[in-house]
Amino acid sequence: MSLSKINLGIIGKPNSGKSTLFNTLLGERASPVGDEYGLTKSLFISDFVHKNYNFAIVDTPGLRRKSRVVKKIELEQNYEVIKVIKKVETIVLLIDSLENVTKQDFRLADLAINKNKILFFLFNKIDLIEDKKKFQTQIKKLLKNNYNKYKLINIEFISAKEKYNVKKILDIIIKKNELLLKKIQKQKLNKFISYLNKRATFPKSNKIEIKPKYIVQIDYKIPKFKVFLNIQRKTPQIFQKFFDNAFRNYFKLNGIPIIYNFENSKNPYVN
Ligand SMILES: Nc1nc2c(ncn2[C@@H]2O[C@H](COP(=O)(O)OP(=O)(O)OP(=O)(O)O)[C@@H](O)[C@H]2O)c(=O)[nH]1
Ligand SMILES: [Mg+2]
What we know:
Blueprint: E1 4-12, H1 18-26, E2 44-50, E3 53-59, H2 72-87, E4 90-96, H3 103-114, E5 118-124, H4 132-146, E6 153-157, H5 166-180, H6 186-199, E7 204-205, E8 208-209, E9 212-219, E10 224-229, H7 237-251, E11 259-263
């Protein structure tokens, strides 16, 4: 039987534990690990099998804030990491649980989301946190309240060093990759539209409620939908957000990219 493939990029600030996680996943010390800030200077690439998946993984140099980057080599490293983000389908953004989530983290997350990647906010070194339950609740609340792409991301907690939750994360990564291939039947999409029209009040454009009329899936590698609306004008952000939210809730599609093409109603299916 041939194995399916998952390409996984490990990114994040210096010292967050990327190389430690890389080694834990491989079960060997392939990438040097240590307290020195900015230890990893180039990409490390390897692969392993978990369940019926062949994981290709990339360990990357820790990225510093742009304003702190002084040496040319660091600029090149930044460039390498951005290339990795573009190339793989799944990104693990590693965050040291003892530190705050920074602007730099959000910048990297935005980059991954804009490129339609499956993205994990992976809080590492959870072994150093005393009240883990409280911490996890706080982090989720923080992100929910402060990050408007909350529904698009996955939030998990591990100790790369103590190998805590690492296997579980692999299983979740598999689940999300399988979810990415989801095909939604026409009938179910129609049902969603009538459900939404019965329930919701919609954002307005020029005092007219923007309503979805019809939806059709047009691609399957990353779920992509054409959504026909009752307006002629450019679809406002607020409606896009509203629709995405409703759609993800209804079909239970959190933590994966979804692409929508919003169209005006000049089409044969409306009315
Ligand atoms: N307590 C604890 N320490 C960890 C964990 N993961 C990594 N560390 C420690 O954190 C330090 C940095 O780990 P690295 O894996 O080298 O971090 P990195 O993100 O690769 O760092 P750069 O290559 O500099 O970007 C090392 O001292 C690790 O032993 C963890 O889960 N728990
Ligand atoms: Mg490293």
